[in-house]
Design brief:
With 306 residues, this protein is α/β, with parallel strands linked by helices. The protein contains 13 helices and 12 strands. Calcium ion (CA) binds at residues 11, 13, 15-16, 39-40, 126-127, 244.
Length: 306
């Protein structure tokens, strides 16, 4: 089996870090590089955190390309540090990565790799869609060249997590999501409709610590902070949402998910700002994940990540 090349775009926070681990531990895919974005934290911190996580995983060979610092047309200066921790990796101790990010910008790397690999390449976006919007505005042909785009974001038939309607990645840059949703890119949306069913319980943390005091301890310190946020925000929920890892799951084990073609638009103003709203009867533009084998996914994810 030849590994499928992917680029993983991250705003490395806790679930992004878990997605990076799942991706580099999955033989079905080859991570050509990480591209970073703002969202959970600043774009610079996302690059630093990605380098730290890759080094912890023994994969400092994977290049990291820094991307957009701000949304397409809004200003973002607040970050959910109460969710992902002050530095973005929950309660894990911060270290200085030995590798450095690449000189090349994330957007140029994305365009270059789409033009090189065409239908072989899958782009996985688990943060705001700003880098992808810039790429498709700079080189519109990539929408027809790339093989597949999987995004963690949105909520088609599920309440949001930033407002009743808005999911965080879309909310961080609604205009970028609007550009991407209108672009003709072959998108699979892994939204809250399915990711809020894939929960990682606190009981897994001592298992990680026992299995590997160093890496398991690092990931447990990181994730416990995130699970505690979920327990305070959603009393009785029983764990944290494995949002970003499920986007990787959609690539390495697509049979875990059921999709439905929909026409989704992004609301750009008002009370429903950043809602990914379904428009029945219009030509579908996105394959939306509507069902997940949550137990099957958790088993597969835990079997690989530590
Ligand atoms: O809504 C969940 C998404 O927002 C995840 O990608 C998480 O990392 C945050 O970026
Ligand atoms: Ca993310």
């Amino acid at each position: 089996m030849t590994a499928r090349p992917i680029i993983l775009d991250v705003d490395t926070g806790v679930d992004d870090a878990l997605a990076i681990a799942y991706a580099v531990r999955s033989p079905e895919i080859e991570v050509l590089g990480l591209t970073t974005n703002f969202g959970n934290i600043t774009v610079e911190e996302a690059a630093r955190n990605s380098l730290i996580v890759l080094e912890k995983l023994g994969r400092a060979d994977v290049p990291v390309y820094q991307g957009s610092a701000q949304p397409l047309s809004r200003t973002k200066d607040e970050y959910p540090r109460h969710i992902h921790g002050e530095h973005g990796l929950g309660g894990a101790p911060l270290s200085k990565p030995s590798a450095s990010k690449e000189e090349k910008n994330a957007v140029d790397f994305i365009i270059e790799q789409v033009r090189r690999l065409k239908k072989e390449l899958t782009l996985v976006f688990v943060g705001p869609l700003t880098n992808l919007a810039h790429a498709v505005q700079k080189d519109p042909e990539i929408a027809d060249l790339v093989g597949r785009v999987v995004i963690m974001g949105g909520a088609a038939r599920h309440r949001g997590n930033v407002s009743a309607y808005a999911e965080a990645n879309i909310h961080s840059d609604p205009e970028a999501a609007d550009v991407v949703f209108r672009s003709g890119l072959p998108i699979t949306m892994v939204g809250l409709d399915v990711t809020m069913k894939t929960l990682l319980p606190m009981s897994q943390m001592p298992v990680w610590r026992e299995k590997d005091a160093s890496l398991g301890g690092f990931f447990a310190d990181m994730t416990e902070f995130y699970i505690r946020f979920y327990e305070s925000a959603y009393p009785g929920i029983g764990g944290c949402g494995l949002h970003d890892p499920l986007a990787i799951g959609a690539v390495v084990k697509p049979e875990l998910l059921e999709t439905e073609p929909m026409h989704l638009v992004v609301e750009l103003a008002g009370e429903e700002l950043a809602r990914t709203r379904e428009v029945p009867g219009e030509k579908p533009n996105i394959d939306v994940c509507v069902k997940v084998d949550a137990d099957g996914f958790l088993k597969h994810f835990l079997g690989r990540v530590i």
